[in-house]
Amino acid sequence: MASLYREHYQAIIARLIRARKDAGVSQTELAERLGQRQTFVSKYELDERRLDVAEFIEISRAIGADLFELLRN
């Protein structure tokens, strides 16, 4: 089943990527903070895997980003 809100999702992921980079956090470092492999980060950033809400919250916290700001834009 295709997502009804694909463009919105992609925009949120783009903001999440930008926040990670602005924080100076590499994919590898983020993955370590999350207890995951670097490929976990790579896959959602390349749109090969979708994040669920809980993962999005944990990633936002791990990079020190304001969750609500990421969603608000």
Computed over alpha carbons, the radius of gyration is 12 Å
Largest sheet entry: none
β-sheet strand percentage:
under 5%
Low-confidence blocks of residues? none
Q: Could you state the CATH homologous superfamily? A: lambda repressor-like DNA-binding domains
The total tally of domains equals 1
Q: What is the average per-residue confidence, as pLDDT, rounded to a whole number? A: 94
The CATH architecture is: Orthogonal Bundle
How is this structure best described in words?
With 73 residues, the chain is an all-alpha fold. The chain has a single domain, classed as 434 Repressor (Amino-terminal Domain) (Orthogonal Bundle), CATH 1.10.260. It is built from 5 helices and no strands. The chain has helices at 6-22, 27-34, 38-45, 53-62, 67-72. The protein starts with 5 loop residues before the first helix and ends with a helix. The model has no long low-confidence stretch (mean pLDDT 94).
Topology summary:
Layout: H1 6-22, H2 27-34, H3 38-45, H4 53-62, H5 67-72
Helix pairs in contact: 2-3
Q: Can you tag this structure with a few keywords?
A:
single chain, globular, 73 residues, 434 Repressor (Amino-terminal Domain)
Summarize the structure.
Helices cover 67% and strands 0% of the residues. By secondary structure, the chain is mainly alpha-helical. It is globular.
